Amino acid sequence: MVISISLSLCACGKGKNKDVKAAESAIADIGTVSADSGEKIQNAEKLYNVLTDSEKAQVENRAELVDARTAYDAILEDNKKQVLGENSKSIYDNLNNASFICSMYMQSIYDAWHFGVYDSNDALKWADDKVSSFFFKMSLSVSYVEEEDLKAAFTSRYPDRDYDTEKFYDMDFNYCIWFVEWVLDDKGIYTQLDNNLDEAQKSLQEMAEQYGDSENYAKLKEYYVKVKAYADFFKSPTGSLSDLASTMTGYEKDIANAKADVDLLNL
Fold first, then answer.
1. For the whole model, what pTM was predicted?
2. In which region does residue 133 sit, left (phi positive, over 0), alpha (psi from -120 to 50) or beta (all else)?
3. pLDDT at position 210, please?
4. Which residue range is the domain that position 45 belongs to?
């Protein structure tokens, strides 16, 4: 009995080994948890996890390690939501702007196409073939394009010609499209569209690196694909007038569906 008690007392009085002390020290070194605590927490976890079960039981501040990991993960999640939300909002806004440009000014292209097919010859006769008079007639039929816009576009490309005296002799309906495209180019519409898409793409690439598996990325990526396809067509429209109308409708329907999915994210 005496021997047994003596051995027990010796065991109780035995100090913690260096591995237990190292783990305790690393945990204590974590301090107040912040977004920069990751390395210290990982180091403490590494030292703690290599201990035996009996050694882990001797780590008096082991609960602090659990609390530190929980707090750190919560900070990371909050930061993720904030960054993801800010990036998502930026992408969403840029795509909305690009979509609006396509939808609005594709109508100008369509109107010019329709005017060229059905009205340009009559307009020329009515205008006595004068460019300035023709521009006036055309501006009445084409959305978002003013007579002065057409005159300015003409002058910038034909500085040595006077639209008040110049006449059309062999008018092709393609000229109607070109005039409108020149106006859009001069007003910076194409540049603005490209800038919106470039900014959206850049932000999507950054998001893919960190949050490529997120719902935000998947839905915004799909929205980008739909808007980009419409933008490419808007900048280089092809087909007949009826093809143009059905293509516009198809793109705008696809974009509306993709946008509705993004709207569920409540950005």
1. 0.74
2. alpha
3. 84
4. 15-75
